[in-house]
Amino acid sequence: MASEQEIIGAGWAFPPRFNADRNQTVMANGVDDINQSLYILFTTELGERVMQPDYGSALKRMVFESVDEHFKAYMRMVLVRSIALYEARIQPLSIEFAPDEVVEGRYLMLLDYVVLSTRRRNNFVFPFYLNT
User: Fold this and answer.
1) What does residue 49 show for φ and ψ, rounded to 5 degrees?
2) d(CA 66, CA 94)
3) Three-class secondary structure of residue 8 per DSSP
4) Per-residue DSSP letters for 42-72?
5) d(CA 93, CA 33)
6) Is the CB of residue 83 less than 8 Å from the CB of residue 39?
7) Cβ-count burial of 56 within 10 angstroms (0-12 exposed, 13-18 middle, 19+ buried)?
8) Most buried of the four, 18, 42, 104, 106, by CB within 10 Å?
9) Is the pLDDT of residue 131 over 80?
């Protein structure tokens, strides 16, 4: 039976770092690679990549918005589109926003998804900061 790494794949860990003992880059495998890819996707501003202007999300542009149902619906639409275009290994099931009880002005974006190649459910929690 194939391992999760063989099915999902592997990529450079983010942020890039090196293992001095082995003289090689540190790799992210399986679901960790997917979660790191999602982090990069969500923290990249639309238009930031010259050759891929559609890569990224509009999260940084939304920092001054109030979190209401319109905001949540718009962000779900934007994030589902970004995931469909640039993280084809997963299918989003739900995206929810919850205020963080510990840090004022921080919301937690809760993404539940299925890895298409393994049919396993996973989740990704992304902190989103608002200017309050």
Assistant:
1) -90, 115
2) 21
3) helix
4) HHSBTT-STT-TT-SBSTGGGTTS--SHHHH
5) 19
6) no
7) buried
8) 42
9) no
Six token digits for residue 54: 């559609």
Please write the tens of the pLDDT for every residue from 7-18: 567 777 777 788
pTM: 0.83
Every domain of the chain and the residues it spans: 4-129
C-alpha pair distances (Å), 31 with each of 7, 35, 38, 113, 131 = 10, 6, 10, 11, 31
C-alpha dist (Å) from residue 38 to 8, 11, 64, 66, 111: 14, 13, 22, 24, 10
- The type of residue at 45 is E
Identity of residue 10: A
